[in-house]
Amino acid sequence: MTSASEWAESAKVNIPTPAQRCLRVYAFDPQASLNLDTAVVNDAMIQLPWEGSWEGPLDVGPVNDYLEVVDYDAASGCFYPPVDLNNPHLLAQNGFAPSDGNPQFHQQMVFAVAMKTIRDFERALGRPVFWMREGDPKAQDSSARFRAHVKRLRVYPHAMREANAYYSPRKAALLFGYFRGKPARDGTGGDWVFTCLSQDIVAHETAHAILHGMWPRSIESCNPDALAFHEAFADLVALFRKFTVRPVIEHELAKSGGTMRSVSLLNGLAQQFGRATGREGPLRFALRMVKEEEEKLAKNERLEPDRNAGITKPHERGQILVAAVFDAFVTIFERRTADLFRIAGRAPGESSHMPPDLVRRIAAEAEKVADQVLRMCIRGLDYLPPVDVTFGEYLRAIITADHDLVPSDDRLYRVAFAEAFRKRGITAPGSHFTSIDSLLWDEPEKWETTDGAPGHEASADASFSSILSQLHLGVTFANPKECEAADEQAPEGARAYLDPGSVEARNLRDLAMHIVESNRRKVHSWLVGEDDRNWEATLGICLRGDRAPATVYRGSDGVPKVEVHTVRVSRRQGPDGQVLAQLIVQITQRRRAYYKAEDQQRADSGAMAADDPRWIKPDFVFRGGSTLIVDLKDGRVRRVVRKSIRDERRLARQRAYLGGDPEVLTFRGRCDPVDAEPFAFMHRSGQ
């Protein structure tokens, strides 16, 4: 008798590829399934796009183009069998049912949540996500001393037996711990807690990895906001992930009477982790801050602009930014749902029973606004300076990125952001902050004519066009030149998928990664060959040794070193279908820096000997550079977000931050990315 599969093969039945892969997860964490109030919504589903023909297939692990789940339990010294999500029995039931006692479900959930987070970033950024591995300066192999892109991020669901979970820049991996929880005051708890089973924690750590991949210098502690921004942004990603599960939104809004200004499972991060360790959820600090500010304003009391200046620990300081973005989100949500409450004849927060239709409508608005606000926050990352970021600069980045994609702000989203940041005392450097237009990053200054030709006006647009014409700005397998260009940088084993005739081996993300690397090398070669004072002023770097302080790092030829971190093409789509194609270039330079101003002056002037130990190993490294944003429709340099290597005032601020406070010095020494794991320290200690 002919089997069904044999019959289908002989008949050449064309079975369409599924559009989505559905995987079951906990909406919150395992503890929520033991609570009668939340158990009904804790079994959730994540829908991921089915693997396309242009990417690698999903393998046992799970392993795909982005992630490799390695389930080695270091404390027990054993490997857990990997899950096969293509098993017909699992496909029929959307994966394993949620269970904290099944290691294969742990693998499934951490994979599903991480991939969903990745897809959210790619939709907002308009390009694939790449991973970055930090080099080890002490490694014997010279190739291991430098940072480099890696194909997959490794994920360890049971990496350690401790109350911690963190992203490792050195390993390019997510490491999740598990531990025995402390009994709660009501007698519950005391069970094993697995951090990989909290959506909040998985999304938080994945956001760290994505942020580091697109912004390598973001893990350096150079001002009070730097590491705090990393923590705050990861918290925001985890927070807005909650609003993708519609049953959870409806459940929580029905309980709160339609108001977001209350602490609930919807806006509390890592509930089980917080209960088990005895620490409050991170958002409670932010929500308490918002509540206290509203109470003061209601009493007509003054909010001091510098009231949060003394908060320096990354987690706590990060909640200032979380409070600002969350307040902007809630304000937008309230404006969009005000008419619904008026029609229903009730006010938000009323304790009486809400009609189910009203709950569904306001939940739909909450989901939509959360998605829009998260995309605004993600798009703003491309408009940040490559080093030394502050909260105020992030506000300018969000506003400018949104303005460039959506020029008309009919719903006043940008006004809501500006107001929320201003209420937290967050200032925008270089802006008077008197209007939304004043928050936009400036366009490049006009250049002075350098060749003396009459009627000739030099500009960054005209100068950059010479290298822009040499770059590969799209990924097309039918174009042999692009494949050939990427093939120049490809390792020997990667030639097949760069061959336009090899259909089976095609991989869009692999090809894009090699084209990005090829473009990065071309921009670097062009930049170090430039001898134009205009580019030095525009980018805030030094291109000639005789025009640079002696402390700027140089190559063996005496030319100042320049780092081109990334050259990425983004294609974003606005709400009206408009497409914004941009080239994002990050350029940095480093300079020796010292805690004593007199040492700095002596080194800058070249009076410090090359064999002086202080010259060989300065007190710290000061960085400058720019993010260059080019509009690919007309080749125009649209924005230059600059942090000059010559900025003495910024150097003085960084010197004061690193050298003036013993607690800062202690913290920096323990979490310096060169010597240790910054996120392991912060997440373990609650800094």
Structural description of this entry:
There is one protein chain. The protein is an alpha+beta fold and 687 residues long. It has 3 domains: 194 residues, Elastase, domain 1 (Roll); 196 residues, no CATH class; 187 residues, no CATH class. 39% of the residues lie in helices and 14% in strands. Helix 3 packs across helix 4, helix 4 crosses helix 5 and helix 9 packs antiparallel against helix 10. It starts with a helix and ends with a helix.
Biggest sheet record: 5 strands, mixed
Find the count of extended strands (DSSP E, 2+ residues).
15
Q: Into which percent range does the helicity of residues fall?
A: 25-40%
Tell me the number of helical segments per DSSP (H or I, 4 or more residues long).
Answer: 21
How many discrete domains? 3
Termini separation (Å)? 68 Å
Tertiary shape? globular
Q: List unreliable stretches of 5+ residues.
A: 452-456, 490-504, 661-675
Strand content: 5-15%
Radius of gyration: 26 Å
Mean pLDDT: 81
The SS-based structural class is alpha+beta
Strand and helix map with partners:
Blueprint: H1 4-11, E1 20-26, E2 43-49, E3 67-69, E4 72-73, E5 78-79, H2 88-92, H3 103-125, E6 131-133, E7 148-150, E8 153-160, E9 165-168, E10 173-180, E11 192-194, H4 199-214, H5 226-241, H6 246-256, H7 271-277, H8 282-298, H9 314-344, H10 356-379, H11 391-405, H12 413-423, H13 460-468, H14 480-487, H15 508-528, H16 533-539, E12 563-573, E13 579-593, H17 597-604, H18 613-616, E14 620-631, E15 636-643, H19 648-659, H20 662-671, H21 678-685
Parallel strand pairs: 3-8, 8-10
Antiparallel strand pairs: 1-2, 4-5, 6-7, 9-10, 10-11, 12-13, 13-14, 14-15
Helix pairs in contact: 3-4, 3-10, 4-5, 5-9, 5-10, 6-10, 8-9, 9-10, 9-12, 10-11, 11-12, 14-15
